[in-house]
Structure formats: C-alpha cells, structure tokens
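We treat protein structure as text, and this decision shapes the records that our systems exchange. This encoding replaces a full spatial description with a residue-level series of whole-number codes. Below, we set out a record of this kind in full and without editing:
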Amino acid sequence: MDDRELAAAVERCTLAAERFDHRTHIRLAWFYLREESLLTALVRFVTSLKRYAASLDSATKYHETITFAFVLLIADRMHRCAASSFDEFLTANPDLAQWQPSVLDAYYDASTLASETARSRFVLPDRETVAPA
C-alpha cells in the first residue's frame, strides 16, 4: 500500500486495526507533512486519527500531547533530513520508530504523559533537552 492509499484507508476507517501500529502512525504523519503545511497536516492527522480510533471503539486511546509532539518532531526532522522516501526518513531517524522507550522520554516526564491533562490537551515538554545538531 502506498502512502496515499494508506491515508485514504485511515481517513475512510477501512484500515485493519492490526495494521495501524506505531510505525504506521509515523508514516501517516510524515505523508501529511509532505503534502501540507505543518498546521494543516496537524489538523488533518488529528482529525483522521480521532475518527479512525472512534471507528474502532477506541476513542479513549487518543492522546493529544503524544500526537502533537510526534507530529512536531517529525516536521522538525524532515527539515533537517532531505529524505525522498519514508523508509529513507526512518533510516535517518530510527528513534522516531521506537515506541518503548520513546523519543518523547527525553522531553517529558512519564507522569506528565500519563496525566489526563496531557491526554486531553497539548502540554509543552517538561524536561530540558539538548536539540539534535
């Protein structure tokens, strides 16, 4: 399935749940960011993700801070790395593909991400980090 087909399947809520793993989340965000401005891609990703999760009776799995933080990190990494394909992008940024531990562990305390506040609205990082070169 190519990137457009993946996006269409998520947007139509026809992608099998077992196919929507962390890597697929990253790939979908990457695709939207290639197609749209950052803010438009973020809105499209959030809308698609919420609709897709609701179609699986999993609306409570949506996490605003994790979603926003990953989209922002992916956008930043895309500006730093001129990859022509998703696989090339992921090869250059393997930390984004890891779920546990997560790249977000460098930016957020575990208790922050576990909070209902972080789940329901975007919370800025609460750890000091060193930006990648």
In short: The first helix runs from residue 3 to 11. The radius of gyration is 14 Å. Residues 3-120 form one domain. The mean pLDDT is 94.
